[in-house]
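[Discussion] Sanity-checking designs against the backbone

I'm trying to build intuition for which residues belong where. Below is a structure token string of 351 positions. I'd appreciate it if someone posts a full sequence so I can compare it with mine line by line.
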């Protein structure tokens, strides 16, 4: 899985306990990102629908959520990856933009990304292997990048991992049914379902996923966009169509309230934290529209920017970080007895 801001790796065990205790057969992961939570639900045998507005998230969801491992010929998949891995480097847009004009990857790896991505369109477009191979490529590129985990900037000196050669791994596919959808949570959320359980993990602040992961957007779109700035961001990052209401202080509370209210699910689980634009009381009130509400709190490390400090454009440390930990919330909403049962299960009190 790629490095991803707000990824819920640490919450997966507790979310798994909640999903199991709800005896869910169907679930929605509405801001699926890496799909890590959707994958955990699918591993319980749940039919999951994974939604996100990011192009790369849709690719991950098609690979890990919508693909039933039993339908994939493992030899075909391994052969296809071996063929792609054998291609000689072929410098193109990716190498020029992200290895020469900027320094996100070493040119020898960039040239291989160009060659593999071109071959994917040439040899595998429209096949069921396509999202699996593209997922493998994005994850391989992520393992040899030269960033701190976001693509607004690259590090001053090449990261040690960037010297390693790009390696395509076989994605760990899961057995079972699932669905991948790309779209806006506010528009799409209410149209889907009904589900036994809906998990909502929206962005918490003004930091946009579209710009933080613009290279993955481009690697999927493969559209050679004009770009701007030191990080070579896609010019359409300036368009309103690529902006999410969840990254605006003004629009986010109403949008979140609408999604929480309108999603069709018996149980709703909402992730949030204590340093965003909406207070815990306001979140509780939003969720109360669905019935009873229980809140779980988890002490957590803050996002990478807070860990590495504040730097000026030449990479010098210029400010101090006020704190490096925060509280992650999980709000569970639904019928009173069920919510109490799920909260106990989440805390590990009930099996
Ligand atoms: C906190 S991250 C989710 C992380 C995910 N749970 C994981 O563990 O990988 C928030 C996600 O919301 C997506 N997003 C932002 N605005 C959205 C919108 N309006 N509709 C759907 N997804 C959106 C982002 O692309 C990002 O993947």
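Best answer:
Here's mine. Compare freely.
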């Amino acid at each position: 899985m790629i490095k991803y801001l707000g990824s819920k790796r640490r919450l997966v065990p507790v979310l798994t306990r909640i999903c199991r205790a709800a005896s869910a057969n169907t679930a929605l992961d509405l801001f699926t990102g890496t799909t890590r939570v959707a994958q955990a639900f699918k591993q319980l045998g749940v039919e999951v629908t994974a939604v996100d507005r990011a192009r790369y998230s849709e690719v991950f969801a098609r690979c890990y959520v919508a693909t039933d491992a039993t339908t994939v010929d493992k030899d075909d998949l391994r052969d296809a990856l071996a063929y792609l891995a054998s291609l000689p480097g072929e410098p193109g847009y990716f190498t020029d933009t992200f290895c020469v004009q900027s320094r996100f990857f070493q040119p020898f790896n960039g040239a291989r990304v160009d060659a593999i991505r071109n071959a994917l369109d040439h040899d595998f477009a429209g096949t069921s292997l396509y999202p699996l191979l593209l997922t493998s490529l994005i994850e391989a590129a992520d393992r040899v990048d030269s960033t701190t985990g976001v693509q607004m900037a690259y590090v001053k000196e090449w990261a040690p991992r960037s010297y390693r050669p790009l390696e395509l791994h076989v994605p760990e596919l899961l057995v079972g049914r699932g669905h991948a959808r790309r779209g806006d949570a506010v528009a799409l959320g209410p149209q889907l379902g009904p589900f036994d359980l809906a998990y909502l993990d929206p962005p918490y602040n003004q930091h946009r996923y579209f710009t933080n992961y613009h290279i993955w957007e481009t690697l999927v779109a493969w559209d050679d966009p004009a770009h701007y700035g030191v990080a070579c961001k896609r010019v359409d990052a300036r368009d309103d169509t690529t902006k999410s209401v969840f990254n605006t202080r003004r629009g986010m509370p109403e949008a979140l309230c609408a999604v929480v209210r309108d999603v069709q699910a018996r149980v709703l689980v909402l992730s949030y934290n204590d340093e965003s634009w909406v207070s815990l009381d306001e979140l509780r009130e939003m969720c109360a529209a669905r019935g009873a509400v229980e809140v779980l709190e988890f002490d957590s490390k803050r996002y990478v920017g807070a860990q590495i400090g504040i730097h000026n454009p030449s990479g010098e440390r210029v400010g101090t970080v006020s704190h490096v930990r925060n509280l992650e919330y999980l709000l569970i909403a639904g019928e009173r007895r069920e919510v109490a049962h799920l909260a106990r299960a989440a805390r590990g009190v009930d099996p």
